[in-house]
Specification:
Blueprint (H helix, E strand, L loop, with lengths): L16 H12 L5 H8 L3 H13 L19 E9 L4 H10 L6 E6 L6 E7 L2 H13 L4 E9 L15
Antiparallel strand pairs: 1-3, 1-4, 2-3
């Protein structure tokens, strides 16, 4: 997906209430036209455009994406798969990190601290496809020692994209 929220480019980035309002509005609807966005947050369109550009240049807004319903494109079964690596060498981490995002059905990859090393959000056609994904792509990967699969019943989007006041 991109850089981590605490990357050096954005660490300590100062945003004010207007920036937060812009981020909230774009998180709700990234397709808002600049004039509508400016009106929604109560600033002039030229100021709004400059602020959005600044948020992008500073890496606070990393991009604009379409939110796709996996079930609508033939991936109705979603799971979170925890992955533990055999060893924590740079080579094994790099090997898994470079291949995981491109595996079929992978929606997101999270590098974790704790007992598991990675968490993969996957979407597949059904239980057999999930089994095949794990067997064909994870248990055969030389860096993978163990996996644990949890099915997702429902995904509820959070609204945690806005930094707390005072940041």
């Amino acid at each position: 997906m991109g850089s981590m929220p605490n990357n050096p480019q954005t660490r300590g980035a100062s945003i004010d209430e207007v920036d937060r309002a812009i981020i909230r509005a774009l998180a709700d609807n990234a397709r808002l036209a600049n004039n509508a966005l400016a009106e929604a947050v109560g600033i002039a369109p030229s100021t709004c455009l400059a602020r959005v550009r600044s948020l992008q240049e500073r890496g606070i807004i990393r991009g604009f994406r379409a939110e796709v319903d996996p079930a609508a494109i033939g991936l109705p079964l979603q799971a979170m798969i925890s992955v533990r690596l055999r060893a924590h060498t740079r080579e094994q981490v790099a090997s898994f990190r470079s291949t995981a995002p491109d595996l079929p059905g992978v929606l997101a990859v999270f590098h974790m601290a704790g007992s598991d090393d990675y968490l993969l959000h996957v979407g597949v056609a059904g239980p057999e496809a999930l089994r095949d994904f794990v067997v064909d792509n994870l248990t055969t990967h030389p860096a993978v020692a163990q996996t644990r699969t949890n099915l997702i019943f429902e995904q509820i989007a959070g609204r945690g994209y806005v930094a707390p006041p005072g940041r």
